[in-house]
Design a protein that fits this description.
Layout lengths: L3 H4 L15 H8 L7 H13 L3 H21 L4 E5 L9 H8 L4 E6 L2 H5 L12 E6 L5 H6 L1 H6 L7 E5 L11 H10 L6 E7 L5 H13 L9 H5 L6 E2 L5 E2 L16 H4 L1 E7 L2
């Protein structure tokens, strides 16, 4: 696919708000990226001080993205919708999926305008497949689902994997997180997959409370959820055999067997479910 998926987004002056920390740029910092700025690094440093295992948590989420994408591609899934994409960090989801299924089609979406400026890195698709990027906000799922880039890239008559990795803890109950996910789920056909990783206070509630306070002070609401509330996001769908697990335990990669982190250090649950 060509880059028309981003061209239509590029109009007017984009305010990147570089003087304010943003969760996507903080995540980039945690992953060792360079697309972050002083405000992001300062907030990231406060987060690490509050929860020294932050880097483990971020990289565990990224590793789960790779494992779950590979798992679904091997099951025959050829379409992916990744919401909350963040700043590109290779290997990106399309690289993993198309490495197994070259004809895989992927749509990325994020609400941080700086991700748009890096979207070219997300559009280097295999010629047999397609990748596209669109700017949208998950808290308005109806508008997101109606976006012309999404509709022109993915076929909603065929199964789609909806990836919500490390996203929903930034969608609080005030923004009706469970209702948002239900709208997204309802739009997908039978055989589609839902992929979620989500921060939890179950293992170390005091540390998660400190992290929440840091993000809130930086202007970003965070709501870590216990396991039963995370499980509700999968309601009506069939969890794959691994179930809803601490993130490091979801289909662990034998190549990562030397990495011995405690569940409390990753502080996340992860799961994948299929729509009947």
């Amino acid at each position: 696919m060509d880059e028309s998926g981003t061209a239509q987004e590029q109009h007017g002056v984009i305010d990147l708000e570089l003087d304010r920390p943003h969760s996507a740029r903080m995540y980039d910092y945690f992953l060792g990226g360079i697309t972050n700025f002083p405000a992001d690094r300062e907030a990231a440093a406060r987060t690490i001080a509050a929860f020294p295992s932050t880097l483990i948590a971020a990289r565990s989420n990224r590793a789960f993205m790779r494992r779950s994408t590979r798992h679904l591609a091997l099951l025959g899934i050829e379409q992916f919708l990744d919401i909350g994409t963040g700043i590109p960090t290779s290997p990106n989801l399309h690289e993993v999926a198309q490495g197994i299924t070259p004809r895989a089609r992927v749509v990325y979406t994020d609400n941080d305008p700086i991700v748009l400026t890096h979207a070219r890195a997300l559009l280097h698709s295999r010629p047999e497949g397609a990748t596209a990027y669109m700017q949208a906000d998950v808290t308005d799922p109806t508008a997101l689902l109606a976006h012309p880039v999404l509709r022109s890239t993915l076929d909603f008559d065929r199964p789609i994997a909806l990836s919500l990795n490390a996203l929903l803890h930034f969608v609080t109950d005030e923004h009706h997180a469970h209702a948002v996910v239900e709208v997204l789920k309802a739009a997908l056909p039978s055989g589609s997959m839902l992929v979620i990783s989500h921060a939890t206070p179950d293992f170390d509630p005091e540390a998660l409370a400190r992290i929440t306070a840091v993000y809130q002070a930086a202007g970003t609401a965070v709501q870590a959820r216990p396991r039963d509330e995370i499980a509700r996001f999968f309601a009506g769908w069939e969890l794959l055999d691994a179930g809803l697990q601490p993130i490091l335990r979801w289909h662990p990669d034998p190549d990562e067997a030397h990495l011995t982190f405690a569940d409390a250090e990753a502080a996340c649950y992860a799961g994948v479910a299929r729509k009947p």
